[in-house]
Design a protein that fits this description.
Chain A has nine helices and seven strands; from the N terminus they run αβββββββαααααααα. By secondary structure, chain A is of the alpha/beta class. The chains are: A alpha/beta (342), B mainly alpha (256).
Chain lengths: 342, 256
């Protein structure tokens, strides 16, 4: 009998432990779905719930606080999502909270994220409707992306044209890039600029020093001007004297000047006439023709110029056949032909 | 011809088994109840299988985690291990492993026990002495296996999850709280209720087949061996068929 009783105790223990485990498992699963413990209901209206289904988690600032209880379609643009939220979260939620549907990770379940907002608002009550925010859909993002890529394509096309022109060697930019002589010149210029700016700097320094010296030095002219007080009085006397002198002496002078100016006016008129005549006589040529020495010099110079131009023409001809610039001349020729046709 | 004979034999056995099950239901709810014998059988079937079930469950959890972990690591989804193992063990592996182990242990022991009783004509003697042998031997055993198997499944689930947790802690530094939080985060009633219900059916099938094979075993010591062997084979097969049906039904009811 003892052994049977013993066996029964073992059996009882085994069965009770298993039942405890099962009930614990059931409780944990149930508490996750808010089946136990008091809850309250929040509602929110969405245009699109993105596959949310009842039983999905609801998070408040990232904490799991409840589940989606039910999803009811009210009309074609309004879907009501009812959420059961733990009662203990009620003191922490204000009426201006914002509900947003998101997903838990990249491929996770859909969840409702409730986030607190700035500002004052009364605490939330059972059955309150809270604000919602519908996320951008993938389709909308794709549409935006389409317009952007079109713009990018246009931009690339323009860039292509510019780079082609650069490669052809036409335009200022191409010259800047391709012409080595220009680059050397620019370098030299920059060098000179640098030097001259250095010189200017040096010079201004010296000027400053000089001025400063003469300011400080009382024996110098400037120093005397600035520092001597008797000089000021003397100047005053002199200016007073000058004043009276001018007043007395300038009167007849002014009348003379007036007279003289009228004469000058007539004289200038005459001069004008003479100049006009010279103009009509083709100025220079007249004098040159009279001077035999100048004539031969000029002839020599013209001859030299002629030779120079001939050589220049040859060089240009050669340049025209250079592959770098050939295209440009061809283009010009074409334009010329077109113009003559027109 | 032998093929058709075999089919006919099989169909005949299924018919016999159904008759046997119906007889069980007729007798099961009618007084007198053999409570003492039922408890004794519970001890035999439940408690005595516990060690075997716990060992296999523990090793299963351990091995499953060790095998799956490298693959999950490749996908960078190693943090999903507890959820995955939790669902796998609770939904399928726990009940199936337990049922198959019990089909081997309980099915064969019932088959052999009843077979030898039949062979040594103890069952006939019982009938003569006025005790209902079906009630005393069959009903108690089937009830015991029906009620004990879910309990064993719970034990196997728990120990299997614990084994898996040990691996996770050793390899991934997952704490006990985090592991079981994640397991229960993944589990829903739709996982645990069908699994528990189906283990009742597993227990019933194992007890039924064991008793049937033993009760109708042929004469001779050879018949006893055959009864034990056939009990295991039929019970295992039936466990798989029931599992398939249970998954279909659970899919409809719980929409997973």
């Amino acid at each position: 009998m003892g052994s049977i009783r013993n066996n029964n105790v073992k059996l009882g223990l085994f069965v009770s432990i298993a039942f405890l485990m099962l009930s614990a498992a059931l409780y944990f699963i149930g508490s996750k779905q808010n089946l136990f413990g008091s809850t309250f209901v929040l509602r929110s209206m969405f245009q699109n719930v993105n596959g949310l289904s009842s039983g999905n988690n609801v998070r408040y600032s990232g904490i799991n606080v409840g589940t989606v209880k039910d999803i009811v379609i009210l009309n074609d643009t309004t879907i009501e999502v009812q959420m059961s939220i733990q009662k203990k979260m009620q003191p922490f939620m204000k009426q201006n909270v914002l509900a947003r549907i998101g997903s838990d990770g990249l491929v996770g379940n859909m969840i409702v994220n409730i986030s607190p907002q700035m500002g004052k608002a009364p605490l939330i009550k059972d059955n309150d409707v809270i604000q919602s925010f519908t996320n951008l859909e993938t389709g909308d993002i794709m549409n935006d992306l389409g317009a952007t890529t079109e713009n990018i394509a246009l931009l690339v096309y323009n860039l292509l044209e510019i780079t082609e022109q650069l490669n052809d060697g036409s335009g200022t930019l191409a010259m800047l890039i391709k012409n080595e002589d220009l680059a050397k010149d620019l370098q030299l210029t920059a060098h000179h600029l640098k030097q001259s700016s250095q010189n200017i700097d040096h010079m201004s320094n010296r000027v400053r020093q000089n001025i400063e010296q003469s300011f400080d030095n009382t024996s110098g002219l400037l120093g005397y001007l600035l520092h001597d007080t008797t000089f000021k009085n003397q100047i005053k006397q002199v200016t007073d004297g000058l004043d009276t002198l001018i007043r007395e002496r300038t009167k007849p002078l002014l009348t003379n000047i007036e007279k003289a100016s009228s004469e000058v006016a007539t004289a200038s008129q005459k001069a004008n006439e003479i100049l006009n005549q010279i103009d009509l006589d083709q100025g220079m040529t007249h004098t040159i023709l009279k001077d035999s020495l100048a004539q031969s010099d000029l002839q020599q110079a013209i001859h030299n110029l002629d030779q120079g131009l001939l050589r220049f023409n040859e060089t240009m001809e050669a340049l025209q056949h250079n592959f770098l610039v050939r295209k440009y001349f061809k283009k010009q020729e074409k334009a010329q032909r077109k113009k003559s046709k027109n | 011809m032998a093929f058709f004979e075999n089919i006919k034999d099989l169909l005949g056995q299924i018919g016999d088994l159904t008759q046997f099950a119906l007889r069980f239901f007729r007798e099961a709810f009618r007084r007198p109840f053999e409570i003492r014998e039922f408890v004794k059988q519970c001890f035999n079937i439940g408690y005595n299988s516990l060690f075997l079930v716990i060992t296999t469950g523990f090793i299963m959890g351990l091995v499953l985690t060790l095998q799956l972990r490298p693959t999950m690591l490749d996908f960078g989804a190693v943090s999903y291990m507890p959820r995955m193992i939790g669902i796998a063990i609770v939904r399928e592996i726990g009940p199936m492993i337990t049922a198959l182990i019990c089909a081997g242990k309980i099915g064969s022991s019932i088959g052999a026990e009843l077979g030898s009783m039949k062979v040594t004509e103890q069952i006939d003697a019982m009938e003569v002495s006025g005790t209902n042998p079906f009630k005393y031997l069959v009903v108690t055993r089937i009830w015991a296996s029906t009620f004990m198997l879910p309990v064993l499944v719970v034990a196997a689930d728990a120990i299997g999850l614990f084994g898996s947790f040990l691996v996770e802690q050793a390899k991934g530094d997952v704490s006990f709280t985090l592991y079981f939080n994640q397991v229960f985060q993944a589990l829903v009633y739709g996982d645990i209720i069908p699994a528990t219900l189906k283990s009742f059916f597993f227990g019933f099938a194992i007890g039924l087949v064991g008793c049937y094979k033993g009760y109708y075993s042929e004469k001779g010591t050879e018949g006893v061996g055959r009864a034990a062997n056939m009990a295991v084979v039929f019970a295992s097969l039936l466990v798989f068929i029931i599992d398939f049906l249970a998954v279909l039904v659970a899919d409809i009811l719980f929409e997973i």
